[in-house]
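Appendix B. Chain record.
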Amino acid sequence: MAGSLLLFTVILPLLLGCVLAGIAFFTPARVALLTLATLAAILFIYYFLEGLPPLPPVSSKHKIFYIFIVLGVAASASQKINTTPQVLLTIGLLLAALFWIGQRKISADPYQLEIFLGLLPVIGAGILSATPQENRRQVFLWPSAFITLAISGSLVSILGGYIGLAQMLGSFAALFGGFLAVSYVAIYFLGRSATLANIAGLNWLLMVATSTILLSIAIFANKLSAVAFVLVCSVYLTPFITARFVGGKNWWTPFLMGGVSLVPALCAIAFAWAYSH
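Structure tokens predicted for this chain:
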């Protein structure tokens, strides 16, 4: 059991992240192709953990699989017509996901705290998508925040009594870790550029997929610390701070970016732990 958990939650997602970085750095893959590869990796992670969902979906977990597909198609389509996902696209898709996933709770009482917390990842992703297009082409800027977003979200979810999607977020963290590890070697040991045009779609898709899981956790984690979740979502804002480090050629620059994101993440975990005890 422990071996299977390690394999599907850590090892395979880590390898998928390495593959995505390998495609980004060592193949002539265009944006749309790398975006589709990213979608495949996300769907594989879902399949490893949850299996193939029924159609039509029965539970909120089943709906997430089909939301991932819609997000991937939207990311690929927007690249093919030479546009990049913007604020309205990001917020529109995530609001639709929030409504579909939480439709029973919203129908019962749209003013529940859980619904307002579910809006935070939507707002955070919308704000982050408003950054200049050049930032979406930076290898470390967004993913260094994503990995802390996924880890802190996973632990806050576990402490909030919702283990299922916490495991999926943990797998996403492993995916980001594999991508960042190979990227670090490619840039600091092999001399590759830290700006890649073809990862714009990858970065956006990873952001909205992670946001979909987070908004689901906000709605269904019955012991969730609201303060902890707000702090988790504040990680969306850290790339605005770490953008000043873009272009730094020191070996520790990516770690500095991750360290900035780690501050609110650790605070979120601390609040969640205190709330659960």
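Further analysis of this model is presented in Appendix C.
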